[in-house]
C-alpha cells in the first residue's frame, strides 16, 4: 500500500479519535481527505461481473454439478475487485461517497466477440438511513440474472473497523430455472493505525443452489499456515452429504486452484492478478439521468480529485440539503420516494426456500424486508426511455 504523505498523517490523529467514538455508521466517520474516494458506493455493484465471460459460463454448462462449480468459481473471481481493487489502484482502501436515496448507477459490459452478449448493470440506492444498495446484472443471451442488495453494520474495536454485511445476492439461470442464494462475507479493515487501511475477509460465506449443492467458503485472511493475506478454502458438496465434490484453495486476490474432492486432482488454477477485467461502459455525463452517480456527484468528484476540500464540503452540503428538502416534502404529502427499479418485499420464495437450508444464517434478510428487482418497473422505464428516443428522433 502506498505511503501516506507526512502532512496527511497529521490529520490521521483526529481521525483515529473520531473512530474511537464510532457509532457504527460508516458514513458518519470524518475520514481525512487522503482517504476520501470520488467513487460512490452505488458503483461497487459493478464488481459482481467484471469478467462477463465467467459470469455467464454456468448458463452454457449442461451438467448441474459442474454448473454449481462454475457459479462458485465466478463468485470467487469477483472477490479481488470487490475487496482489494481500491488498495491496488489507489494505494489503500478509500471511503466511498455515501449515496443519496434514489441514486442510480447504470452501465453495460459490451461484447465485441458476440459470444457473451451484452451484460447490463442496474444499481440503485434504495435506502439512505441505513444505506442499502440494490442491484441487478442481466445477460439476456445466456439467461443469467444476478439480483441482490447490501448494507453494512460496522463496529470499531482494537484498532480495526469490523463490517458485517446485511443482505444477499441471488444468481438465477433462466434455461434451467435454477437459483443460487449467496451470502455476503464479513470483513474488517486492517492497517488503520498505519493510516493505510485495507480489507480482509472474515469467517465464512455460503452459496446454496436450488439443485441441492452447497458451497462454503472459509476466509482465513493471513492464513496461519501460509501467512499470505486473503487466503481462503472452499468446498462444494451435495446438501446432506459429507463428500467433498470439489475443493478450491488459495488467495482470492492472487492464485487459487480447483481440485477434485476425492482424488485431489488439480483441475484448474485461476490467476486473479492476470485475468483481464472488461471495462464497464457508462453513458457520457450529458446523456445521464440527473440521479445517476457521476452526473449528480460531478462537482464533488472534481473537487476531491483536485484536493479542493472547501468545494467538496459546499457541493456535498448542496446535495444533502436538496435531499433534506425532498424528504420533508414527501413527509408533508404522506408519500415515500418511489424506487425506480426495485421493490421491498417481506418474503421472497427463493430466499425462503434456500435459506431454510441448514447452516445458512440469513435471518437479517427477513427483518426489514428483502429488496428484489422489479421486472415490471424495469420494462416501464425501458419503454419510457425508448419512447423518449423516438420523440427526440421525431422532433
Ligand atoms: C471511514 C473513514 C476511514 O477513513 O476509514 C478507513 C477505511 C477507509 C475504512 C472505512 C471504509 O472502508 C471501505 C471498504 C468498503 C467496502 C468494500 C467492499 C464492499 C463490497 C461491496 O459488494 C459492498 C460494499 C462493501 C462492503 C464496501 C462497504 C463500505 C466500506 C466498508 C468502506 C468504509 C467506509
Explained architecture:
- Strand 9 and strand 10 form a beta hairpin.
- Helix 5 runs antiparallel to helix 6.
- It is built from nine helices and 18 strands.
- The relative contact order is 0.13.
- The C terminus is likely disordered.
- Helices cover 29% and strands 31% of the residues.
- The chain starts with 5 loop residues before the first helix and ends with a helix.
- Strands 3, 4, 5, 6, 7, 8, 9, 10, 11, 12, 13, 14, 15 and 16 form a 14-stranded antiparallel sheet that branches. A two-stranded parallel sheet has the order 1-2.
- The chain is an alpha+beta fold and 395 residues long.
- The radius of gyration is 21 Å and the shape is globular.
- (3beta,9beta,22R,25R)-3-hydroxyfurost-5-en-27-yl propanoate binds next to helix 3, strand 2, strand 6 and strand 7.
Features:
about 400 residues; alpha+beta; 14-stranded antiparallel β-sheet; 9 helices; 18 strands; about 30% helix; disordered C terminus; binds (3beta,9beta,22R,25R)-3-hydroxyfurost-5-en-27-yl propanoate
State the order of secondary-structure elements, H for helix, E for strand. Answer: HEHHEEEEEEEEEEEEEEEHHHEHHEH
Mean pLDDT: 90
What low-confidence regions span 5 or more consecutive residues with pLDDT below 50?
A: 390-395
- Quaternary organization: single chain
Q: What is the SS-derived class?
A: alpha+beta
Could you tell me how far the N terminus lies from the C terminus, measured between alpha carbons in angstroms? 53 Å
Per the principal axes of the C-alpha atoms, what is the gross shape? globular
Tally of separate helices:
9
- The overall strand count is 18
Helix fraction, binned, reads 25-40%
Q: Calculate Rg over CA atoms.
A: 21 Å
Main sheet characteristics: 14 strands, antiparallel
Strand content: 25-35%
Give the distinct bound molecules.
(3beta,9beta,22R,25R)-3-hydroxyfurost-5-en-27-yl propanoate
Amino acid at each position: 500500500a502506498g505511503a501516506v504523505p507526512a502532512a496527511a498523517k497529521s490529520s490521521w490523529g483526529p481521525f483515529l479519535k473520531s473512530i474511537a467514538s464510532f457509532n457504527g455508521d460508516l458514513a458518519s466517520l470524518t475520514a481525512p481527505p487522503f482517504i476520501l474516494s470520488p467513487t460512490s458506493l452505488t458503483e461497487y455493484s459493478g464488481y459482481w461481473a467484471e469478467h462477463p465471460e465467467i459470469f455467464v459460463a454456468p448458463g452454457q454448462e449442461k451438467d448441474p454439478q459442474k454448473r454449481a462449480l462454475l457459479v462458485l468459481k465466478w463468485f470467487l473471481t469477483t472477490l479481488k475487485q470487490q475487496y482489494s481493487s481500491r488498495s491496488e489502484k489507489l494505494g489503500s482502501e478509500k471511503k466511498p461517497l455515501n449515496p443519496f436515496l434514489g441514486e442510480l448507477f447504470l452501465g453495460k459490459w459490451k461484447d465485441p466477440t458476440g459470444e457473451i452478449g451484452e451484460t447490463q448493470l442496474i444499481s440503485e440506492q434504495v435506502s439512505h438511513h441505513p444505506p442499502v444498495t440494490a442491484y441487478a446484472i442481466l445477460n439476456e443471451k445466456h439467461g443469467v440474472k444476478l439480483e441482490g442488495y447490501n448494507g453494512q453494520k460496522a463496529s470499531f474495536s482494537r484498532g480495526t473497523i469490523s463490517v458485517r454485511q446485511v443482505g444477499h445476492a441471488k444468481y438465477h439461470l433462466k434455461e434451467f430455472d435454477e437459483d443460487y442464494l449467496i451470502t455476503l462475507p464479513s470483513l474488517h479493515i486492517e492497517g488503520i493505525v498505519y493510516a493505510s487501511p485495507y480489507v480482509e475477509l472474515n469467517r465464512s460465506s455460503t452459496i446454496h443452489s436450488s439443485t441441492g449443492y452447497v458451497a462454503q467458503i472459509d476466509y482465513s485472511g493471513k492464513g496461519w499456515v501460509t501467512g499470505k493475506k486473503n487466503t481462503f478454502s472452499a468446498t462444494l458438496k451435495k446438501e446432506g452429504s459429507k463428500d467433498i465434490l470439489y475443493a478450491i484453495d488459495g488467495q482470492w486476490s492472487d492464485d487459487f486452484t480447483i481440485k477434485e474432492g476425492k482424488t485431489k486432482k488439480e483441475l484448474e488454477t485461476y490467476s486473479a492478478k492476470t485475468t483481464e477485467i472488461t471495462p464497464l461502459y457508462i453513458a457520457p455525463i450529458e446523456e445521464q439521468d440527473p440521479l445517476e452517480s457521476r452526473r449528480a456527484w460531478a462537482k464533488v468528484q472534481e473537487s476531491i480529485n483536485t484536493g479542493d476540500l472547501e468545494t467538496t464540503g459546499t457541493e456535498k452540503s448542496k446535495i444533502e440539503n436538496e435531499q433534506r428538502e425532498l424528504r420533508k416534502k414527501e413527509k408533508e404529502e404522506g408519500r415515500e420516494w418511489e424506487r425506480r427499479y426495485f421493490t421491498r418485499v417481506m418474503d421472497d420464495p427463493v430466499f425462503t426456500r434456500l435459506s431454510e437450508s441448514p447452516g445458512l444464517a440469513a435471518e437479517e434478510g427477513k427483518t426489514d424486508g428483502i429488496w428484489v428487482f422489479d421486472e415490471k418497473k424495469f420494462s416501464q422505464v425501458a419503454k419510457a426511455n425508448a419512447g423518449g428516443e423516438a420523440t427526440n428522433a421525431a422532433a
